[in-house]
Amino acid sequence: MMLNIRSFNLGPLQTNAYLLTGADPAKGIIIDPGMNPAALVRSIEGMEIEAILLTHAHFDHMGGVDEIRKAKKCPVYLHPLESEWLSSPKLNGSLMWSEVSPPLATDPAEYDLAEGQVLQFIGHTFRVYHTPGHSPGSVSFLCGNDLFSGDVLFKMGVGRTDLPGGRERDLFDSIRGKLYKMDDEVKVYPGHGPRTTIGFEKIRNPYVPQ
């Protein structure tokens, strides 16, 4: 069954938000609803949103959570290592980046994410990989041959590790030990920039070669 993926480039840091639908176009899930989500909000009018999945809780990835959760009455999923970040502008970084964001805060996530967890939404299966390094609770979601990598792996790039809770060794372990173990054909939908594939990154990524 086909997974339909729509990408939205949101906010001052050009964060990729993803709206996913299955066989029923009236039901969807959202991965990382970022700041200034008006275009995404317009696109989900009349839709049932089953869940918001967060790859991590930095402000540019969670900026649209409050508006969408209240409008759609949908639960939020987040790794517990960042459980306090949604309600803390200091932890989610919006306090530190005051030139691009007001202080952002919303209620904690309804559900935790964990390594190896399997989620069923919109007629599809999503497997959770805990991929820390950019942030302690970063996760990636694999649905068939589609991987949503947040700020872990980019096209010919990787997530920065100089923010609170970041660790370069963890990031490289996450990429080599988990993401690079996936099939070369897996398409990577990152938190910023264009999509890529696992096979391409294993050969061409200058930061984490295979």
From TrEMBL:
Q: Output the InterPro entries linked to this UniProt entry.
A: MBL_Glyoxalase_II, Metallo-B-lactamas, RibonucZ/Hydroxyglut_hydro
**Protein name in the entry:** Metal-binding protein
Name the catalysed reactions.
3',5'-cyclic CMP + H2O = CMP + H(+); 3',5'-cyclic UMP + H2O = UMP + H(+)
Q: Which SMART domains match?
A: Lactamase_B
User: What are the alphabetically sorted keywords of the record?
Assistant: Hydrolase, Metal-binding, Zinc
Tell me which cofactor or cofactors this protein depends on.
Zn(2+)
Q: Matching CDD domains, A to Z? A: metallo-hydrolase-like_MBL-fold
